[in-house]
Every structure is written in structure tokens, then in C-alpha cells.
């Protein structure tokens, strides 16, 4: 059983923010900024494509509520909502990171600097499968 499943089952000492029958949210123990929350589906799945529809809707619902709370509590300049999937992920239990953002807080994209073509071909390929 993974650490997030243990958290969902109440088997780990964490700072619980929210829990219902579909999702669980708790403070990240290594926050980017104070208030950094992880939102996970209660089922163990690794990819967004495997998260049950009702759970992903609930996760987005909670993310929006948390972003509003960040604004109220911190008077934020913005927020970040993100997920890393597959081998880019840090754990094999799907999760959203959501945290408040402030001008000059230093968090941002890590750009490799590599040049990539802006291909019109990919637009057609993406549209075909939708
Ligand atoms: Zn898990």
C-alpha cells in the first residue's frame, strides 16, 4: 500500500484539510509556499486518465474552494494547480498540487532551453482523437 493510500485510510500522521467518500486533501510536508495542499482520489490510480469521473470533478471542486481560501487568507497574487504524470511523477498515486502564489516567490517553469518546432500537424492529430 502506498503512502497516499495510508493517508486516505487514516494510517499516517498528516495535517488533514478535507476528506469525503471520494477524495482526501492534506498539507504537503515540503510546501512550495505555506498552504500547499495535495488532493488525491481515495482510490489508488496512477494517471489522470484512470481517475473516476466523479472523483476528478470533486478534486477540481475542492481546488477551486482552496484557491478562494488562499485569496481570503493570504491575499494572494495567484495560485498554481499542477500534476505530474507517468515517469514525470513523484509518486504512483495520482495527486494535484495546489498552492498560493505571490509576486517574486521564485516558483516557475523549468525550461530546458531546447528548441521545439511549433507543429501544425499535432493539432490535427489531437483533434482526431477527441
Ligand atoms: Zn495509493
Short account of what is shown:
This protein has helices spanning 3-8, 53-74, 121-128, and strands at 16-19, 23-27, 37-41, 78-82, 96-101. It has 130 residues and is an alpha+beta fold.
Question: What descriptive keywords fit this protein?
Answer:
binds zinc ion; 130 residues
Oligomer: single chain
Gyration radius (Cα, Å) is: 17 Å
Number of strands: 5
- The string of secondary-structure elements, in order, is HEEEHEEH
Which stretches of 5+ consecutive residues score pLDDT under 50?
A: none
The pLDDT mean sits at: 93
Strand order of the largest sheet: 1-2-3-5-4
The number of helical runs is 3
Largest sheet: 5 strands, antiparallel
Query: And the CATH topology?
Result: HIT family, subunit A
Taken together, the total number of domains comes to 1
| Bound chemical compounds | zinc ion
> Per DSSP, what share of the residues sits in E-state strands of 2 or more residues?
15-25%
The CATH class name reads Alpha Beta
Given helix and strand content, the structural type is alpha+beta
Return the CATH architecture: 2-Layer Sandwich
What is the CATH H-level superfamily?
HIT-like
Could you give the distance between the termini?
A: 34 Å
Q: Helical content, roughly?
A: 25-40%
Amino acid at each position: 500500500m502506498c503512502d497516499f493510500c495510508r493517508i486516505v485510510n487514516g494510517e499516517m500522521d498528516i495535517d488533514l484539510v478535507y476528506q469525503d467518500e471520494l477524495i482526501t486533501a492534506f498539507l504537503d510536508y515540503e510546501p512550495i509556499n505555506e498552504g500547499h495542499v495535495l488532493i488525491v482520489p481515495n482510490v489508488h490510480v496512477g494517471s489522470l486518465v484512470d481517475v473516476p469521473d466523479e472523483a476528478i470533478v470533486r478534486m477540481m471542486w475542492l481546488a477551486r474552494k482552496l484557491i478562494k481560501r488562499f485569496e481570503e487568507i493570504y491575499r494572494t497574487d495567484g495560485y498554481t494547480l499542477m500534476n505530474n504524470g507517468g515517469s514525470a511523477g513523484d509518486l504512483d498515486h495520482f495527486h494535484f498540487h495546489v498552492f498560493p502564489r505571490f509576486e517574486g516567490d521564485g516558483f516557475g517553469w523549468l525550461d530546458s532551453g531546447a528548441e521545439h518546432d511549433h507543429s501544425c500537424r499535432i493539432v490535427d492529430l489531437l483533434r482526431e482523437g477527441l
